[in-house]
Amino acid sequence: MRALSDINGLMERERVLLRSSFMRFLRRVRTPSVLAQLTQGARRDNLEGVLSVVGDHLEEFLEAFPRSFARVADAEIKRARKSLRLKHLSRLVEKIAKVGELNAALDFTFDPNDERAAGLMDKLKLDFLTDFNAKQTKAVRSALAQALRDGDSYKSAARAICDSIGLTETQWQAVNNYRTLLTNSSSEALQRQLRDRRFDSTVTNAITRGDILSDDQVDRMVDSYTQRMLAFRADTIAITESHRVLSAARREAWEQMVDQLGLDENEFTRTWNATEDERTRDAHEAMNGQTVRGFEPYTAPSGETLNYPGDPEASPELTVRCRCVETYSLS
What we know:
With 331 residues, this protein is mostly helical. It has helices at residues 2-28, 32-43, 47-62, 64-95, 99-106, 115-149, 154-164, 169-183, 200-209, 215-261, 282-287; strands at residues 268-273, 291-293, 298-299, 305-306, 325-330. β3 and β4 form a beta hairpin.
């Protein structure tokens, strides 16, 4: 289906852009100047100060949300206008006497300054910020507490905090546990999915000979593992958030068309399309092909309703890393 292919292509483009923006944020918070600020925060055991440093650099990433929203909504309106011209030409001609006025009516564009649209863009940013800050607070607190328990220097504590930025507490603990496994020359280190396999022979030799890996070797392996964990986190954020932006922006585009052209919501339907492969959730596979009229919500097998794929009001089990998309069709 051409429409579905276009939508997936649009989502992939926004995913790549959002991921790149998040990776730029991670690079900024790992510069020497930021490390110096984090060292001061660690020296004072100032968790709020540390999080404030992170927050200052997160603002630029948050601006990627409204830019993505506007691009998607504009693209959706341009795509929908073609269908509107073909399927509603005769009805609109009856309402608008002159062809010139008809073309003018159909040449409207997305208005990012619309009060509802602006509110949606702000909400997408706030929802992400609230969730990110909650996860980041736990990760930073865990890193700082571990550094203090180990009696590390303030600079080492700051480095641990820096490494935790962008990760969830669970992911940070995974990194910390991986360091412990390497330090103890444990064979479990070779079972970590995100490990850098280029080091496998070094770890295997140390285990076989009963040797202990040097601090430098452990640091290089953990650094590589951390970067892979951060890349995984960036992918999760990019997939989840670009998906939410795409669904919300497309819905807003249609709401603006309904408002501006006086369309009846009963004149179009929306269909849930799941990505049918081994990674698809059972719930989403069951929802595949579900069609609703106008702006009615979809219903999951559990009875939970979603306004669109990736709806931030729905449970994480139905939204995180979701790849489903919806298609709009004029009746």
